[in-house]
Design a protein that fits this description.
alpha/beta, nine-stranded mixed sheet, three-stranded antiparallel sheet, 16 helices, globular
Length: 404
């Protein structure tokens, strides 16, 4: 996704000059309200954004959630996170030196914010300013060859020298080599567990060094032990933060290829270092090159591609994120939208069926104001009673007994 160009061109010393983000900090009450929303059952990243936009702020959305849950109990139960639990999580984060950063706050990684479903919250430990610096991910095999480790170190050091922050996942092999080579410049480690949990265990000193000289990032709370399912989520953040991803070595089935696929889906540049055809660690990178990844044999191959993108893709809140920021900081006394009544909800349900229909057409069919219809559709979506078909079409979700 290409945004506005910089007012001043990149300098020779640093090819990528970050632009400032708008300032809209949250107070403690706002942070607790946001965290309670995030930790409530069946409130994922997309629903979090919808709730904020719909109700004009986290505290207003939290206040409306009990009524929404009461009106929509057929499919998804919504259990609201207690304030005490949110407060305890924030206290635990402070104890380990981690700072919460929500999507609607300044400093949240701008390129990650414009993805389809960015994590509503990141915990940051270290130099948070690195999140505003243009970055490239370097990932690869955990069982890397000596040549692969050397290549990762070389690319990482030279790209960091050019002004890019090096992002990786603190894994064995290529990841660790990339972090170490950029430690004296700029590196971000994205973790699958909490920022106080080291995985793999032998990287405890490296993780500590990155916390001191770079930045640790995780969407998980402190104390969270990573599971297998958490690593693809980590990989999505790695890809989302970065302008591009460089794969140094990767087997045919590996997490590095997952990161490359996610990066491609996000419109990021994907680079691959070729390897020997007989080396299993080169199977993934060679396949990436066949599929259209950019060949990278020297650092100039990457810089020549990223320099114009770096000028276009400077950090700045996306329109949805900016809208959320403005909504969150509306006056607490702002009038909340009146909830739809049962009769209106029944009319919309009667008009819905298994065939997809546009929301505007649904408003015409029911004779209700579009604002009321959208409010009802939002609540039905939150309770799992509708399904989406493309960008604008919705249909009534059919449950097991065929009755919705």
């Amino acid at each position: 996704m290409r945004n506005r160009r910089l007012a001043t061109p990149p300098t020779e010393q640093n090819l990528f000059t970050p632009a400032p983000l708008p300032v809209a900090p949250l107070d403690q009450a706002g942070r607790i309200a946001c965290l309670r929303l995030i930790r409530s059952t069946n409130v994922g990243p997309v629903t979090f954004r919808k709730l904020i936009n719909h109700h004009g702020g986290a505290e207003q959305a939290l206040a409306a959630l009990p009524a929404i849950a009461e009106r929509n109990t057929k499919q998804r139960a919504i259990k609201i996170c207690p304030a005490e639990r949110a407060e305890a999580e924030l206290a635990a984060a402070a104890k380990v030196g981690a700072v919460p950063l929500f999507t609607i706050e300044p400093g949240f990684p701008a390129h990650l914010a414009v993805t389809d479903a960015p994590p509503p919250l990141l915990y940051i430990k270290g130099n948070a300013a690195l999140l505003a610096q243009p970055s490239i991910a370097i990932v690869g095999s955990r069982q890397a060859s000596a040549a692969g480790v050397k290549l990762a170190r070389t690319f990482s050091a030279q790209l960091a020298e050019a002004g890019l922050c090096i992002v990786s996942g603190l894994a064995r092999g290529i990841d660790a080599a990339a972090h170490k080579a950029a430690l004296n410049k700029a590196t971000i480690a994205v973790l699958a567990g909490g920022v106080d949990i080291t995985y793999p265990p032998e990287h405890v000193e490296l993780q500590h060094a990155i916390a001191q000289h770079g930045c640790l990032v995780s969407e998980m709370p402190p104390g969270f032990q990573p599971r297998g399912a958490d690593f693809p989520r980590r990989n999505r953040i790695i890809a989302g933060i970065s302008l591009g991803v460089l794969i140094v070595e990767a087997a045919r089935r590996s997490g590095s290829l997952v990161t490359a696929r996610l990066a491609s889906e996000m419109g990021r540049e994907v680079f691959a270092v070729p390897g020997h055809p007989l080396d299993p660690r080169a199977e993934g990178t060679l396949q990436l090159l066949k599929d259209g990844a950019s060949l990278a044999t020297k650092v100039e191959d990457i810089l020549e591609t990223l320099q114009p993108i770096g000028a276009d893709l400077q950090p700045g809140l996306s329109e949805p994120a900016h809208h959320m920021t403005q909504s969150l900081h509306k006056a607490a006394t702002a009038e909340a939208p009146a909830p739809p009544n049962d009769s209106q909800t029944a009319d919309v349900l009667a008009a819905l069926g298994p065939n997809p229909i546009d929301v505007d057409e649904l408003a015409r069919a029911t004779g209700l104001a579009i604002r009321i219809v959208r409010s009802i559709v939002f609540e039905l979506d939150l309770s799992g009673r509708i399904e989406h078909h493309g960008h604008q079409l919705i249909a009534l979700r059919q449950i097991e007994d065929g009755v919705s």
